[in-house]
């Protein structure tokens, strides 16, 4: 498995956009349009946010993760954020997500940050069991309960 930047694989933009649109836009009732997701992923970088990483195996996309400057408007003091972690169902339980998260933490450290944040509405135990530190529970205009976690990038 190879972890690389989406910007190095523009042929994967539509595939990533479809995965993220179905999982994080349609499933959450967001009003974002598919074309907005494609535009977002077309504009990801390697040293400035947003950054998107891919897990690839012989050119096949296994999963993806992004780093956003902010993923929770009501908590703009927390920077940066792990976001849109997704592993294809047929690639789950193979360590793909863990590799993507590990590379994300390393990259955030390389960029000069000491901490990485994430938000979750329903997978708190997953992150807690992997060493993420609970920060707080908040609510915004769409969700009544959002758990915020952080991890040290050391």
Mean pLDDT figure: 94
Provide the structure class. Answer: alpha+beta
Helix content, binned percent: 25-40%
The main sheet orders its strands as 1-2-3-4
Protein name: GNAT family N-acetyltransferase
InterPro entries: Acyl_CoA_acyltransferase, GNAT_dom, NAA80
Pfam family, one: Acetyltransf_1
Domain N-acetyltransferase: 3-154
Report on this model:
It holds the Pfam family Acetyltransf_1. With 154 residues, this protein is an alpha+beta fold. The chain is 28% helix and 30% strand. The protein has helices spanning 13-26, 34-42, 96-110, 124-128; strands at 2-5, 51-57, 60-68, 81-87, 115-120, 133-138, 146-152. Strand 6 and strand 7 form a beta hairpin.
Looking at this protein, list some descriptive labels.
alpha+beta, 4 helices
How is the secondary structure organized here?
Blueprint: E1 2-5, H1 13-26, H2 34-42, E2 51-57, E3 60-68, E4 81-87, H3 96-110, E5 115-120, H4 124-128, E6 133-138, E7 146-152
Antiparallel strand pairs: 1-2, 2-3, 3-4, 5-7, 6-7
Helix pairs in contact: 1-2
State the gist of this model.
The protein is α+β, with helices and mostly antiparallel strands. The protein has helices at residues 13-26, 34-42, 96-110, 124-128, and strands spanning 2-5, 51-57, 60-68, 81-87, 115-120, 133-138, 146-152. Helix 1 (13-26) crosses helix 2.
């Amino acid at each position: 498995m190879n972890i690389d930047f989406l910007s190095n694989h523009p042929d994967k933009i539509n595939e990533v956009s479809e995965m993220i649109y179905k999982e994080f836009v349609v499933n959450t009732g967001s009003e974002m349009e598919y074309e907005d997701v494609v535009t977002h992923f077309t504009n990801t970088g390697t040293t400035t946010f947003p950054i998107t990483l891919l897990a690839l195996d012989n050119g096949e996309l296994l999963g993806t993760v992004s780093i956003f400057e902010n993923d929770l408007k009501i908590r703009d003091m927390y920077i940066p954020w792990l976001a849109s972690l997704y592993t294809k169902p047929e690639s789950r339980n193979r360590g793909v997500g863990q590799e993507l998260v590990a590379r994300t933490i390393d990259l955030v450290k390389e960029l000069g940050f000491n901490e990485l944040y994430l938000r979750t509405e329903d997978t708190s135990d997953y992150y807690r069991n992997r060493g993420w530190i609970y920060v707080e529970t908040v609510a915004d205009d769409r969700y009544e309960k959002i758990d915020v976690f952080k991890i040290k990038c050391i």
